[in-house]
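Attaching the record inline, Q. Sequence:
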Amino acid sequence: MNLRSFPEIEIASDQDSPHKALGFAEIPNALYYFDHKPDLVFLFDLDEKESRQMPRAKEFTVTIADKPGELGKCFMALESRGINILAFQSYVEERESLVRFLADDMATAQRVLGERHMIFEETEVAVVRVIHRAGALGRAAARLGEGQINVDYSYCGLEPGSPLLLLVFGVDSLTRAAALLDALAAEEQAEDETVG
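Structure, as predicted:
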């Protein structure tokens, strides 16, 4: 993502926020994010090719029968095609078992689910990759709360071949959540490089 700072821009803070220097200004193809430094504004350019690195992903929500073995059948069908599940959650709602997950190959996963005539939907979610340590989930959730983002649900997984934790959030404002989580990940990376 292209992250540019504009210290000369002065933007009024969000008066409803407990953090008076926190706010957003959405304009076509961009999102301004400012936090804790009223004289510093970050511009996230949403049109650039690099912006695809913003922490958003597609997840599947699959409806399966609420009986022994059905969850295993679903995941084994995906495994048979070489699909790795990166993060998931499973729960029962109204006598049906629902599973949400991120996969490393969403196109193939979609084909497998379709071939098995499974009921599923795709949803965009906010995802952040953070160092797996105490407080990682709390910091991400708190950052979303500071930005007045409502979290509908969350779950986690692991980044393959990496010590990073994947935190997945179903939110009411994906663009703003993605910007907040991307900034958090950049801050954590900078802290880690300073310590290391």
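The two ends are 24 Å apart (CA to CA). The first helix runs from residue 70 to 79.

More tomorrow.
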